[in-house]
Amino acid sequence: MTAKRTLDLDDTLYDYVLAHSLREHAAQRALREATDALPHAGMQIGPDQAQFMALLVRLIGARRTIEIGVFRGYSALAIALALPDDGYMLACDVSDAYTRGARAFWEAAGVAHKIDLVLAPARKTLDARIAAGDAGTFDFAFIDADKTSYDDYYERCLVLLREGGVIAVDNVLWSGDVARPAKSADTAALQAFNDKLHDDARIDLSLLPIGDGLTLARKR
Ligand code: CA
């Protein structure tokens, strides 16, 4: 039967996808493998998703980007590699412990000069940029941080993006929990967020079942 819906990716098929598509810089691979050995490695996006987002960044010709939730710097590295040499990423995180090792990998890949890591609550960082007159000046944003704040991050990114800019939002399927009665504040927040975006006339929308679910919202 020809499947109209997304295939179930078992390990064999996922390995095939990686074997036939992945083009990682040596620094990306080194960072990914270093993180896989650490606690909370599941917070790192998959390499197929990182490459997809890097392609998306190239497709829209992004020069100025935002990342909310840097963790160990793998997604930032993938996106920075896709930016032109004078590209810029405002990278927001609150954890020095998580992000401390990232710069060495960014430097190894020659993209550290594009990444402006700001260790502060992202709401505050984004509000400061809006107040400074940066509304409408960014091309791409990736939201992958505390789920109960997604709506706050989304609203601020929508202000900071130009028309035609894209916001990518991670973990919107939350291991499938969003389709069941919520048992946590995170699940409830993601359900409300997904409901809101479905009806949000300010964006064009696609919810992709890649990784743990990735929503793409294009600002109209
Ligand atoms: Ca994530």
Describe the structure concisely.
The protein has 9 helices and 7 strands.
Explain the overall architecture.
The chain is of the alpha/beta class and 220 residues long. It contains nine helices and seven strands. It has a seven-stranded mixed sheet, with helices on both faces. Strand 1, helix 4 (74-82) and strand 2 form a beta-alpha-beta unit. Helix 2 packs antiparallel against helix 6 (102-108) and helix 3 packs parallel to helix 4 (74-82). The mean pLDDT is 96. Calcium ion is lined by residues 43, 45, 144, 170-171.
Structural classification = alpha/beta
Question: In what range is the share of β-strand residues?
Answer: 15-25%
Average pLDDT rating = 96
Stretches where pLDDT is under 50 for at least 5 consecutive residues are none
Which outline best applies?
Answer: globular
The end-to-end distance, rounded to whole angstroms, is: 38 Å
Q: Cα-atom Rg, whole angstroms?
A: 17 Å
Q: Give the bound compounds.
A: calcium ion
SS element count, helices: 9
What level of helicity do the residues show?
40-55%
Order of helices and strands: HHHEHEHHEHEHEHEE
Spatial strand arrangement across the major sheet: 3-2-1-4-5-7-6
